Amino acid sequence: MAHKKNRNVGIIGIGQTKHSSHREDVNQPELIHEAVSLALKDANLTMKDIDCVVHGNMELFEMVHSPDLWHVLGTGAYGKDSIRITTGGTVGATLSCASDNLVASGMYDIVMAIGFEKLQEGHTTGGITNMACPLWFRKIQAGALTGSSAYDVEREFGLERADRASLMYRIIMDKHASLNPNAHRAFGLDFSQIDDLIRTSPKLVGELKLIEMCSQSDGACCVIYACEKKAKELSKTPVWIRDHITVHKEENFTIFGYDRKYPVLKTHKFAAEQLFKRNGIKDPLNYFDVFEMYDPATWWAIDWIRDFFNLQGDEHLRLIEDKEIMIGGKMPINPSGGVIGSNPIGATALIRVAEAALQVRGNAGPHQIPTPVNHALASGFGGTMWTVLTMLEKELNW
Amino acid sequence: MGKRLAICAVAQIKNHPDYHDWRFQNMLLECFEPIIEQTKVTFDMDKGIRTIITCSDDVFDARTISDNGITDVVGAHFRGEEKMAQESINGLGYAMACILSGHDDLILFMGHCKESQGESRRMISNLAYDPFYCRPLGMDYHNVDALQARSYMEKSKVSDEHLAKIVVRSRANGKKNPYGRENKIVSEKDVLNSPMYSDPLREMHIYPVTDWAYGMLLCSEKRAKEFTKKPVWITGYGSCMDRYFLGDRDITSNFSLKNAAKRAYAMAGIKDPRKDVQVFELSDHAAYQLPMWAEGVGIAEEGGGGRWIDDGGMDEFNVNLSGGQLNGNPLLLGGAARAIECYYQLSKQAGERQVKGAKRAVAQAATGGAGQHQAVIVMEA
Q: pTM of this prediction?
């Protein structure tokens, strides 16, 4: 079904904190307040202009029930319409979809989305393990750590090529993160270190190494959405939300186990196919100018590139090996440094939308892509392989 | 895309003190199957349900991402699902946005809560307070509500006897509701002798621990007739957040409720709720909230809650004929329960509770202690 919107929606304000492992200098509402203030400043607005505030994160990471009630001290939602909506790791992307829906519906002209997490205050792996069914799967779940994608890639392409591709991806992300002043981890790694890191980085689960896994961060992100009329009045460079899709999956990662003969249909592939089909995009790799991907670990990242762009054979590995995913390459992925660089979970997927929008706007800072960015894609990942995809456009001409 | 949202079908299980033989997945499946059967709706990517909105809570379920455990039983395997992590009534407001935006034309809205699983609901709502000041002080929704009750009762001349009357009426109404929690019928004297819980709130003044689940099929104006002959319409929604620290708030002012109601009424074109609305369902987590929220939605005079009860306001305005939250719904699902009662009333399926000629109804629900966040929806036949 072709996608029709009641009215167009544009992003007119973006703010995010510096992401870090320990923001002990601020409490949760204060951390949020930093992102909200930056977004308002970016949009040249005050809280008086905001009609509705949308809030999201995961309660059990910080053990705060209905945290929007306390966070009103930092969100500015006092006296406003406000809703709280969550979906796990995808929550930030869901906040963006929800804000788009709320504005497009005509119910609100300007909506502010706030994603947040202060993982330092809880136990992230414990929190994630706690999502598994207490009767069947909790005992075998190790938080977000899985080695199964590593096995799949190694089995298909051989150990040496797979390991090198994974580390190549990791170092590209680190090089990007080093350009992003908000990134949590930027080590200054170089391609010459690939062999050393393969040998020395401690293994977490199966073939998944410490260097290949994302961090746990404290951080917040705030994005302001406006209807077409207001967006054009208030912003010189609104970034338009073209479409978005959410695809979830059943409770367990896969109840039938991993079997090459019976591959489990992946939400990434399904979401991308459906979204591109209804928007008439036949060659996504050529259409998009940048992709901000939710990459919790290198193995998942390299595997998913193939799914999202519907690539065949080893095309996805060649994109990485030829450094085509770097800033300046054919399909720059995560100029921000990605989730491997910074991961305040409730904010992470909203940061993907925010960073993609900054690239379209052309003022991302030191990690801005040098060539024009007209079409951007952002993904969210969460739950048991849940996917949210958002398409952003520079012009209202689709 | 239209201007309003259709409710095409509703299914629920009976409110129950403890479904110890069901997991919450089972509770949802009992609501999911009748909706599919009744409406023949599919999950086709073009013509069927692509988006499911759920309502549940991580702390009540003791599961990170509480919607993860239910994706398959709500039909969300390879479909979109988004969780309202707030009072369920806001899920209806959000569903309205999904449909009026044109992004969706069908929404399945499902919610569950097994309050009986929790060790203590006071422990849960204590976690809603910041870990620095209010949580160590022991604040939870019940004792914060009690602080509000004390000041409100003083302001609006509501007495212990008034509260007893509200409890007796709620249980009598709940008896007539086939999905209502089964509670002992009590006299005013029983309530007045009920043990003090959080002064001035007695045990019987507070809604009982309840397990419940529901499902609703919502759709655009254009497609409603595919699924039902008599849709009920949601024509207005509004919400509002108040301040966090009690000391920063005027806790008897109904600030957030008045704003939420004003916004919902404006959207639905209601000028005078006393004349324009025939049924009111208010989320009274504790007995004092019935007259207080009645003031907030504009059917009782400000500061006149006590007299309004004496003058028969509860029956005159058809307030909480379902028994209300006070008869027993899970904390976060009271708003959906209120909306479902309004749906029954407006589609003339309310049985012996039926209000003749009910054309318009208002459902209200609050999130947080002392009604910090409020939301109101307007529904029409």
A: 0.97
